[in-house]
Design a protein that fits this description.
With 368 residues, this protein is α/β, with parallel strands linked by helices. The chain is built from 13 helices and 12 strands. Helix 5 packs across helix 12, helix 9 packs across helix 10 and helix 9 packs across helix 13. The longest helix has 20 residues. The protein starts with 31 loop residues before the first strand and ends in a 14-residue tail after the last helix.
Length: 368
């Protein structure tokens, strides 16, 4: 049985981050803030084809490649004298908006807004150029009310937002149990309650929800409040892998500045390699970056289990993205999309080959 965490609805393209931000005016309402992290450029470092590259990401553990890559200077090292201008976002729509407006060049983002942004722009505004992370999504429940999967029927289960990746994953899983839910209202054999990740723990403590299908670190925050992991979404996927974070780029930026894109990809590959070789140091680095962004680090009881559930990798797991799209269509939240051309993995494969690593596949969804 394969459940998917799909794409956003065409009408609802939000992917919410789990941590609150102290926001400043960025041109996107309360969605974006210039990162407090200042990149340091080595003296006499040679610039690439632009002076500055605008990079976006969420202050979220599933975006740890960006958090750690910037925190440890691994991305900047590959860019030489070209400076990183980092910005953080707390929702997918604002990051896509920044990409569309040209204020953002490259971004770490979830599969749902990437697909929605690609399809709404008729395939003209972005490309997925790499994977970044897999996993980190769980169904956490109140063990007093739900003791087995069949007990989910009749209960109130939260997801971050109508049509977001976890929302459709839950809707698809419910369908596979033979239960019925109206996707739009969330009413049916299971009550699907759309709740911002920032307030989901409070909703759980108050008893207004019985559980939640959510990404990390929200899932581990619920466990810290007494919740129980009833299902790890990874268990529903072949090899327990599914895409949770991709790297995207503006198509015109990719065309005009391939050297910069390649440098960022080298930095991402080296960062993932460093994360996997130094998991404890990388976890501490990510938490330090989160503290700088939000003003508060995650406690060990939250970050330790959350970190273990996320896999950092370069493969975009393109086949799982396609499956996610199919489940979104099945749920009635997305019209059948044409995803051919959403990937351009040539720059990444060039980097991987030069580093002696295996090349990755676009599942037939690459540029022609």
């Amino acid at each position: 049985m394969s459940a998917a965490r799909p794409l956003t609805a065409l009408r609802t393209l939000a992917v919410t981050a789990a941590l609150p931000l102290l926001l400043t005016a960025c041109g996107y309402g309360s969605e974006c803030t210039d990162s407090a992290k200042q990149t340091e450029v080595a003296a006499n470092a040679k610039k690439l084809s632009v002076d500055e590259v605008n990079i976006g990401y969420f202050p979220n553990l599933t975006h740890a490649t960006a958090l750690v890559g910037i925190q440890e200077g691994l991305l900047q090292k590959e860019l030489g004298g070209t400076t990183i201008k980092p910005s953080t976002f707390n929702a997918g729509p604002s990051e896509i908006e920044a990409l569309n407006s040209g204020d953002l060049d490259i971004g770490w983002i979830g599969p749902s807004p990437a697909i929605n942004g690609y399809t709404k722009a008729a395939g003209k505004n972005l490309r997925i150029i790499s994977g970044s992370a897999s996993g980190g999504v769980k169904l956490v429940v109140n063990p007093e009310k739900i003791k087995s999967l069949k007990d989910v029927k009749g209960k109130k289960i939260a997801t971050p937002q109508l049509g977001n990746t976890q929302d459709v994953a839950l809707l698809n899983w419910i369908s596979e149990q033979g239960w019925k839910v109206d996707a739009e209202s969330g009413k049916g054999d299971v009550s699907v309650v759309r709740t911002d990740n920032k307030i989901t723990p409070d909703a759980y403590k108050s008893g207004s929800i019985d559980g939640a299908w959510v990404p990390e670190p929200t899932a581990s925050k619920l466990v810290a409040e007494g919740g129980k992991v009833l299902l790890d979404e990874g268990d529903l996927w072949p090899d327990k892998k599914f895409v949770i974070t991709n790297i995207v780029v503006r198509q015109d930026f990719l065309k005009e500045h391939p050297d910069v894109v390649e440098a960022v990809l080298r930095g991402s590959v080296k960062t993932n390699e460093w994360i996997n070789a130094n998991p404890e140091k990388a976890k501490a680095s990510a938490n330090e970056a989160l503290k700088a962004e939000s003003g508060k680090a995650l406690p060990a009881e939250v970050i330790d289990p959350a970190w273990k559930s996320i896999t950092f990798l370069d493969d975009p797991l393109a086949a799982t993205l396609d499956t996610e799209a199919q489940h979104a269509v099945k749920a009635g939240l997305l019209e059948k999309p044409d995803l051919k051309g959403i990937y351009d993995l040539a720059p990444l494969n060039k980097v991987l080959k030069a580093d002696g690593k295996d090349e990755v596949d676009d599942a037939g969804l690459g540029v022609k």
